[in-house]
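$ run holo --ligand "coenzyme A" --emit tokens
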Amino acid sequence: MKGKTPEESRTIITDLVLPSETNPIGNMFGGELLARMDRAASISARRHSRRIVVTASVNHVAFNKMIPLGSVVTVEAHVSRAFNSSMEVFLDVWIEDRESGLRSKANEAIYTFVAVDEMGSPVKVPELVPETELEKQRFDAALRRKQLSLVLAGKMKPSEATELKALFED
Ligand SMILES: CC(C)(COP(=O)(O)OP(=O)(O)OC[C@H]1O[C@@H](n2cnc3c(N)ncnc32)[C@H](O)[C@@H]1OP(=O)(O)O)[C@@H](O)C(=O)NCCC(=O)NCCS
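-- output --
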């Protein structure tokens, strides 16, 4: 199976924040942003694998900045590493200044998707070939994040998480 670059799965969704999507102090609901990120990440994982994909876990979400009503929000997703049937998808969220048009980073998140067949059984996906320095950094750290996610989900023994253990050994 031929490897694919992150560029081939890059997915960009831009949309406004409407009143029904805000909390009582006029900022975007976290759940609304999670849903937008899940949609972008799922398209990205589908572009990489060309299979049916399901969300296996949300590994990390940082709500660093409030996103006010009326903001133009851009969610950008790409596959950052592919394993056997699972793919890590990295999400960067940007908002743009109304007058200058300049973009600033609002949030980021990391999701894991699994490619499955019609019966819901995991299937193999192409490997990911990182190109830029940032893509290589994200690729290198992805195995550690996968092991952490599996340990937290009770699917891997901490003693088997070699990449995590290496963090604490010097
Ligand atoms: C995700 C799912 C397919 C995994 O099935 P499973 O029986 O655990 O299958 P496996 O143990 O073979 O795992 C498949 C892959 O998922 C990965 N995985 C499973 N749980 C994971 C987790 N919590 N974090 C990271 N990766 C995970 C495994 O490491 C494996 O990756 P690999 O093949 O690349 O090595 C299954 O749990 C499922 O269908 N879940 C529901 C998904 C869904 O409906 N999502 C929407 C929620 S509303």
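-- notes --
DSSP finds four helices and five strands in the chain.
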